[in-house]
Amino acid sequence: MTTITKVALAGAAGNLGSAILQGLLDAGFQVTVLTRNASTHSFPSNVNVSPVDYDSIDSLSSALKGQDAVVSTLASLALSNQIPLIEAAVKAGVKRFIPSEFGSNTLNEKARQLPVYADKIKVQDALQKEADAGRLSYTIVVNGPFLDWGLKVGFIGSVKGKKIDLYDGGERVFSTTSLPSIAKATAAALKHPEETKNRAVYIHDTAITLKQLAAICKEVVGEDGWTTNYVSVDEMYNNAWAELKKPQPNHNVFVFGFLKTGIWGEGYGAHYERNDNALLGIKELGVAELRELVTNVAKE
Q1: 11 close to 73: Cβ distance less than 8 angstroms
Q2: CA–CA separation, 162 and 242 (whole Å)
Q3: Which residues partner with 207 through β-bridges?
């Protein structure tokens, strides 16, 4: 495969997208951001901006002409938009497609059964079909929950709010990665196109238990005032299914229930013992570096 230099980024305005945009620019790629026609978001002056209609193959393929790769960080409610984006990438002659995965191990058979990943599986199937036909190659980035963001907004735990949920006691090891490291690894995957062709790459900043992470957080912000909830994964999983079956289900209940099951449940492949950190230049964080990360989250 020839060198990848020009990259189109879809979904650049979000938390992950903005981090990956910076990572691509830092790595020296020429970046074109795909935006919806109605978007008013601004981007750095060294970024090309191309308004597109995600419902139009012609609009998308026109924007992708001359691009070597597409990176998608489209949000969960827009994941289905990647199907026409893949078709447009093939039509435009794009070489590599990195879909909006950037989370749990959806290559794990048990995780693939969780309904919250249905759209991601459809995208994987579409990419595999194109890869089998030799029309497009792909790389899937698997990084676990966002470490810094997850501690900031309370998905993993709340550093500022001094609150954490321990799933099944918080003893299971899981892989987790910060947004800057995900961005660095994504850019590095494009720098190593042959080694990352048509496969998933696994990365993490750390593999840790919730109990261990909670201890580090308490060292940083103090042990007083913490709320610890003990949650049964099986109960959370069953509640998510019960909610999904309702005529008007609560999105937060079933989506987060399934997502957290895939991270902290048993057998979902959430600990990446074999990973691509070395290939992609990701250095595993030690305890001192984890303390520094938590300190930075607490200051935000």
Answers
A1: yes
A2: 30
A3: 175
Q: Decide: residue 229, CB within 10 A, 0-12 exposed, 13-18 middle, 19+ buried.
A: exposed
Q: What are the residues facing 80 on neighbouring strands?
A: none
Residue at token pair 């990572």: 23
Q: Return per-residue pLDDT of the chain as tens, 300 residues.
A: 679 999 999 999 999 999 999 999 999 999 999 998 877 788 999 999 999 999 999 999 999 999 999 999 998 878 999 999 999 999 999 999 999 999 999 999 999 999 999 999 999 999 999 999 999 999 999 999 999 999 999 999 999 999 999 999 999 999 999 999 999 999 999 999 999 999 999 999 999 999 999 999 999 999 999 999 999 999 999 999 999 999 999 999 999 999 999 999 999 999 999 999 999 999 999 999 999 999 999 998
- Burial grade of 11 (CB within 10 A; 0-12, 13-18, 19 or more): buried
**Taking a C-beta distance cutoff of 8 angstroms, is the pair 68, 94 a contact?**
yes
- Residue type at position 42: S
pTM of the model: 0.96
End-to-end CA distance of the chain: 42
* Tokens encoding 56: 């139009």
Q: How far apart are CA 132 and CA 129, in angstroms?
A: 5
Q: What is the dihedral of CA 118, 124, 125, 126, to 10 degrees?
A: 110
